[in-house]
Design a protein that fits this description.
6 helices; about 0% strand; elongated
Length: about 130
Amino acid sequence: MNHLLLPFLALDLIVAAAVIVAVIRLRSTPLAVSLRSVTSIVGMDQLRALEHFSLAQHRHIGEYMRANWSGIPDQLPAVISALLDDLARAARAQNLPLQRDALKAMLASSLRAHRIGKGSERSEAFKRVA
């Protein structure tokens, strides 16, 4: 009976380690960072406003990037920076309590969803954007 128990325990340890690694990676994603950055949202109305803002800006982000980025990776940080400024103005106009880090996370998620640029290009560009 012991000879069947050892492989099962080894498999259990491997699965447990994989789950722990996945949780750690998930906690360090831009979405987790953005949720920590939005500190002053207290009501459902504000959550709905944030959701509508995010959906509207997702469409705007796709159009903006297609119109302003030629696909050259060296230009991506400048385009992202200009777009972040645009998103910040839109958030202030709607009185949404979004900090720049939360906007960066929202933008990164939207670019990923639109499949704009390669992952490594986007990561490098966001490192260079303040």
